């Protein structure tokens, strides 16, 4: 069974890296919003929040694809916070070692989960974060992404 996931990432810096992950086909991920649609959505804060909430609906997990500036992005932070509020598991995957056709490799960014304290039933939970092998980041992600998501789902009781 393919899991349905919501990919959270810094569009401007990492969209080409994220496309590589989408094309792996291991998961059913949300499709990126078109630039024209995004221009309409982002006109109001409510529009962006509504779009995020709609797209988180029915997803098994939030997958934060971590590039050099992902942790600082306002809407990534909102997606993480909102997914947790909606009882969605969250997992992080560093993508700086994927080669972007436009920008090459990137520097490793901060862990976006360090900006939050996650609690389940009074227990502090630290979301899992994976850093693919330097020697074959693409192959490592392709081979393990589905398992990493299952690990996030199994980390705490999501009932």
TrEMBL record:
Record-linked Pfam families: ThsB_TIR
- What is the protein name stated in its UniProt record? MTH538 TIR-like domain
Signal peptide interval: none
Q: Which organism is it from?
A: Pseudomonas indica
Any idea where the Thoeris protein ThsB TIR-like domain is?
Answer: 6-98
Reading the lineage from the top rank, the first entry is: Bacteria
């Amino acid at each position: 069974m393919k899991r349905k996931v919501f990919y959270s990432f810094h569009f401007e810096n990492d969209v080409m890296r994220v496309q590589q992950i989408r094309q792996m086909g291991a998961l059913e991920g949300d499709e990126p919003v078109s630039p024209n649609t995004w221009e309409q959505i982002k006109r109001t804060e409510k529009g962006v929040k509504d779009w995020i909430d709609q797209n988180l609906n029915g997803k098994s997990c939030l997958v934060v694809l971590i590039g050099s500036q992902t942790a600082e992005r306002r809407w990534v932070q909102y997606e993480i916070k909102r997914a947790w509020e909606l009882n969605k598991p969250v997992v992080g995957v560093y993508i700086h070692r994927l080669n972007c056709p436009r920008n090459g490799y990137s520097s490793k960014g901060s862990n976006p989960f360090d900006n939050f304290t996650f609690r389940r039933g009074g227990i502090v939970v630290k979301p899992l974060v994976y850093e693919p092998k330097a020697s074959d980041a693409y192959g490592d992600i392709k081979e393990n992404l589905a398992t990493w998501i299952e690990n996030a789902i199994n980390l705490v009781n999501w009932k």
